[in-house]
């Protein structure tokens, strides 16, 4: 029975033990709260770390994809450039050959024109000479005809003078023409 009463007795050792127990419980509670807060902060930090790692991985993947796309584009552009360059070089060669062929044809045509011009001038000179010969011949024939006509007229005049009223004798003229 006496022990029951001692509980509330106010013994400093009991008081210190109770107080220490209460302080220990408070401290434990406080440490548990700190532990819970630290655990929550750690979990929050791990989630953020995970999110950042995911974002980093996504950026890394995006950068790798971008790099591959860039390499693909550069490769494609290089291929297109080489193909275009090859095409243009082939076209240049083709046009140079065509130019050379056309220059050769032009030179051949110039030679042909020179030959035809010389031939034309030669024919013109021959025709001019032929025309000159024909004109000379025509003049000669006109002179001969004029002389023949003059002789005939002279003979007719002579015949008319010899015969006063006799008809002219054309037999002599006919004999001369037959000769």
TrEMBL record:
It is found in: Cytoplasm, Cytoskeleton, Flagellum axoneme. Component of the nexin-dynein regulatory complex (N-DRC). Residues 7-20, 159-169 have a biased composition (Basic and acidic residues). Residues 1-20, 159-179 are annotated as: Disordered. This is Dynein regulatory complex protein 12. Residues 85-151 form a coiled coil. Component of the nexin-dynein regulatory complex (N-DRC), a key regulator of ciliary/flagellar motility which maintains the alignment and integrity of the distal axoneme and regulates microtubule sliding in motile axonemes. The keyword Cytoplasm applies. It comes from the Eukaryota. Its main location: cytoplasm. Keywords: Cell projection, Cilium, Coiled coil, Cytoplasm, Cytoskeleton, Flagellum. Belongs to the DRC12 family. It comes from Pyramimonas obovata.
């Amino acid at each position: 029975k006496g022990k029951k009463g001692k509980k509330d007795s106010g013994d400093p050792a009991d008081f210190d033990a109770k107080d220490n127990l209460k302080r220990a419980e408070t401290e434990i509670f406080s440490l548990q709260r700190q532990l819970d807060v630290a655990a929550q902060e750690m979990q929050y930090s791990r989630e953020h770390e995970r999110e950042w790692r995911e974002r980093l991985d996504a950026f890394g993947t995006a950068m790798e994809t971008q790099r591959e796309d860039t390499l693909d584009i550069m490769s494609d552009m290089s291929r297109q450039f080489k193909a275009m360059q090859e095409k243009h070089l082939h076209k240049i060669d083709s046009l140079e050959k065509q130019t050379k062929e056309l220059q050769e044809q032009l030179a051949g045509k110039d030679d042909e024109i020179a030959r035809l011009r010389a031939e034309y001038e030669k024919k013109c000179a021959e025709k001019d000479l032929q025309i000159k010969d024909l004109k000379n011949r025509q003049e000669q024939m006109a002179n001969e005809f004029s002389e023949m006509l003059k002789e005939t007229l002279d003979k007719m005049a002579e015949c008319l003078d010899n015969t006063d009223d006799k008809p002219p004798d054309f037999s002599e003229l006919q004999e001369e023409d037959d000769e």
